[in-house]
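Troubleshooting log. The previous structure file for this entry was overwritten by mistake, so regenerating from the original sequence record. Sequence copied from the archived sheet and checked twice against the printout by T.R.
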Amino acid sequence: MFSNYSNRLKIFIILLNICFYLTAYYLKGISVDGFIISIVFFVLLLASIEDIKTYKIANKYVITILVLGLISVIYKGEYINILSLIIVFLVFIISGFIGLKIGMGDIKLISVSTLLLGLKGVITAFIIGIFLSAVVGIVFIISKKMTFKSKLALAPYLTIGIIVALLFYK
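Regenerated output below.
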């Protein structure tokens, strides 16, 4: 998962993880929840980097978050989040058929995050992610680094939304 990155990128990932782990443990304490959030952050960070490079999110990242989400659901007893995952997934799939331009990897990523965040939390995370991606997209268009037809990796912005919701929502 981590071996094919440059040394600078590895150092950046490690430093960012240390900062995030300290924040997660400060806010959530040493707990199962804090541990799961820390692992999820690392996986989301790797998925974001891959999305930036390839515009794809590998299933290994989605499956890892799915497993961690199921552990969280069982640990907290929030079984309604399983139904919420199905609802979110179906809404995004249907939206794709009516014109929403979001990749399947992004749909799977935001859907499995529902297990950790619940329905309201994932809506919050998605709104944050879409807002940030829109701001960045507008800046890139104004600076002529991209056009309206250009692709923009969504996972980094969804990651920020998911992390904010994990740390501060509820």
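The chain has one domain: 7-168. Archived copy saved in two places this time.
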